[in-house]
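[job 4471] stage=fold_predict status=RUNNING
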Amino acid sequence: MAAQTGTMMSSGSLCTSGRQQNVVQALFGRPVQGQASRSPFRSARDVVEKRASRGLKVQAVAIVEKAAASAPPKSQYELYTLTTWLLKEEMNGTLDGELATVLSSIATACKQIASLVTRAGISNLTGLAGAANIQGEDQKKLDVISNEVFCNALRASGRTGVIASEEEDLPVSVEETYSGNYVVVFDPLDGSSNIDAGISTGSIFGIYAPSEECSIGDMDNPEKMLENCILNVCQPGSSLLAAGYCLYSSSTVFVLTVGTGVYGFTYDSIVGEFVLSHPNMKVPESGKIYAFNEGNYCAWDQGLKDYINSLKDGSNFHGQPYSARYIGSLVGDFHRTLLYGGIYGYPGDSKNKTGKLRLLYECAPMSLIMEQAGGKGSTGVQRVLEVCPEAVHQRVPLFIGSPKEVDYLESFCK
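[job 4471] inference complete, writing structure tokens
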């Protein structure tokens, strides 16, 4: 019996320890003895090989099941929040603490905007603000407020050197920064014309690498500082470090990429945190939904007209024509396309040759997200991420969605 309890035998043989002996005996039906220089796991493997060589059945499945059963159960109250995700990415070396701080500040701004959007109808936040932005578009009250919320959050982070917004005429140098100096571009409230009707809206943002050329040290020469700031902001989308959007709808969803896939977090208002709900999002290869404003059909190029007509012709797709779904909010239409597949498009026309979507803070960030999810973003003739902005508020046509759908569209445009 001493051999089964792990005591030293007079012959010099040594059995496994008592606890290990019990495990081995439970798995193999009898204790395993081995030399003192051998580990119990090596001895167990020897038994498996010996029994197999004799034609005896080894219950490997039972062993795996037993090991799995011994693992602690996952708690039903476990939450994988955006904060946790950022910490994990920092540990993996995907991003540093400075960038994580900027992303966390943006998420906080989105929480505040989500609250404002929800209460807009009862807080006198609907309607026009009485001014127009640099593009000549009438500003809604929430456009102005959301821009201020974003700017305040980024300044408070202390890691932002330059910010460029749809609602600002020119890029703004942030004096409050003390490290990081990231360049952040954003549309604080996309689709704001839908607010009064309670239709989904969203915020879009992109983050570029820090730059020393746009510095408050050049305040003695404001013209030089402004020129450097504009040059720093006008970078191609391929240089983005991170991009994301926040959808304000039946739920508030924060979607983010830092170049390692796309992740979606749904806001839990009780906990007050964004909780991971859509890990590693992937757009379907194709999808039979198109989102275009066909009110502009007559002003489109013939190639685009032919494309739209082909989608409506069921004979081209085994008798099943495409379905049209158009919200009129880039974030809302994009989010549906990301989940269900298909294509979203805002082309140029005879009135607006380059369309109406801005390259820097709408098209480029969304294209990065779509590409990270396995899709494509195109101007019809060029990859969006390869277009280098020549102006802060430059516009480009946008076709974005499932890779096969974008390829099919491009066949009509080239």
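[job 4471] summary: Confidence is low (pLDDT under 50) at residues 1-17, 26-30, 32-44.
[job 4471] exit 0
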